[in-house]
Amino acid sequence: MNKFVLIAVLILLALFVFLKFRLTGIGYYSWIFSGVMTMLLMLYPLVWYDVLPDWLNKVTRAVTHFDMGLLSLMVAFIILRDIIFVPLSFAKSGLVDQVFSGTATGCMFGISLLLLTLGYIHAKAGPEIKYVDVPIMNLAPSLDGYTILQISDLHAGPAIDRSYVENVLEKVKEIQVDVIALTGDIGDGDFSKYHDRVAPIAELYAKAPVLYIPGNHEYLHDSGKWYDYFRQMGFHLLFNAHTVISHNGATILFAGIIDPEVKEVDPQQKPDIQAAIKNAPPADLKILLSHRPDIAKEAAADFDLQLSGHTHAGQFLPWSLLMKLFQPFAVGLNKYGNMWIYTNPGTGFWGPPIRLGTTSEITVLRLVKG
């Protein structure tokens, strides 16, 4: 048996057993609930590989994503309840029986449904614009106020339709910027099916120079077709490469690296910072575009600022809390050594269309003298 399949089966089995015994107070219904919710997850490969007819794909995607969101919240509530009240139940029998009753389980289910609904509305509302000042030590006076528009993890494809992308373009229409950075996962899925959903983003080219790097999702489907599409839009692709932009007599070096997921299409390639800056001329400021923020520790010696995405800030509870525990540059402006790292939480969303504890974002970064 394939190792990945074996691990997936074991995880699903563990989830089934956990839910069976921790959905307390509802008797044999816990078997039904845990069985149905676990089996629905087994449909997800059909969504992942996009093999179903469009109408059936939409239904299956909605069902499995609802299942994922509901399970995430229910498991989080159960674990939190058990951590707090199981020790008390051992201390004095009967003290907290109501917490483990069928009524309490029903309340957890109802609250989870309410949160899912709110998260869905929040996600579908689209991104907010966030303005961020980045203080740069010894910034050239002519670069004070230089602005960068960052869009990341748009995931235009099966879940993000054309109207969502048009909404993003409408929000940035009146914003004046000097350069635009697209930090990966812009197009997602089968190119022939979904490239029309990405099409409105071509309007950015008329606004300012557009720099693009790939994320991991571009390597999952039709990567070459997506890259050609962005190149035809006039975007500057930085694949382990750099470009220099002049501004009021000063120069900014923008370098970009590919994503480690490139191994899926070419095992000989990998993200390479040194290749990206090879033969680069001196510059007043150096900025790295990297889809994944965790390369910051390697990049800090060569750059003043890194722009990343990928994390989605965890997207929704409880993952948004866990992300901050395990990813030091999970979201927002952070610093490593002398280099600033800004991690965009995603302009779109991926997987369950839910935003709880996070917000989709279009970022406008302004360089200021530190």
Pick out its properties.
single chain; 370 residues; alpha/beta; Purple Acid Phosphatase, chain A, domain 2; six-stranded mixed β-sheet; globular
Total strands: 12
Form type: globular
Oligomer: single chain
End-to-end separation in angstroms reads 56 Å
Question: Which range best describes the helical content: under 10%, 10-25%, 25-40%, 40-55%, 55-70% or over 70%?
Answer: 25-40%
What is the top-level CATH class of the largest domain? Alpha Beta
Structural class: alpha/beta
Question: β content, as a range?
Answer: 15-25%
> Roughly how many Å is the radius of gyration?
23 Å
Low-confidence stretches: none
**On the 0-100 scale, what is the average pLDDT?**
93
CATH H-level superfamily title of the largest domain: Metallo-dependent phosphatases
Structural account:
It is a single chain. With 370 residues, this protein is α/β, with parallel strands linked by helices. The chain has two domains: 3-123, no CATH class; 128-369, 4-Layer Sandwich (Purple Acid Phosphatase, chain A, domain 2), CATH 3.60.21.10. Helices cover 39% and strands 18% of the residues. The strands form two sheets. Strands 1-12-2-3-4-5 form a six-stranded mixed sheet, covered by helices on one side. Helix 7 (191-198) links the parallel strand 3 (179-183) and strand 4. The protein is globular and about 75 Å long. It starts with a helix and ends with a strand. 37% of the residues are buried. The mean pLDDT is 93.
